[in-house]
Amino acid sequence: MIIFGTKGYLYQLAILTLVCGRCGNPSAHTLRKRVTKFTLFFVPLFPFSTKYATQCTFCGAEQQVTREQAEELQAQEAAGQGGYQGPGGQTHGPAGQQPYGRP
Ligand SMILES: [Zn+2]
Asked: Does the predicted TM-score (pTM) go above 0.70?
């Protein structure tokens, strides 16, 4: 008798600040890789499925991304996301730096 099956592995690759496609918030998103491995007698032999997804930590929406996108996002994180520094609040949205309204 041969016992075979699959086993899923979940890896968290990065945490990124992205604008969510669902809730529209620029919130932290986790980038995850889900690898499904073929197992024989409960021993994982080889992966036959690898999927990448981002998940919004604000609303929980998960979005699948391609491997290329995932690599791009990881590169973005490594590069410091091009200017956004920390959750400080100095650059809170692109709303005007110049307050109009003085008559
Ligand atoms: Zn969201």
From this structure: no
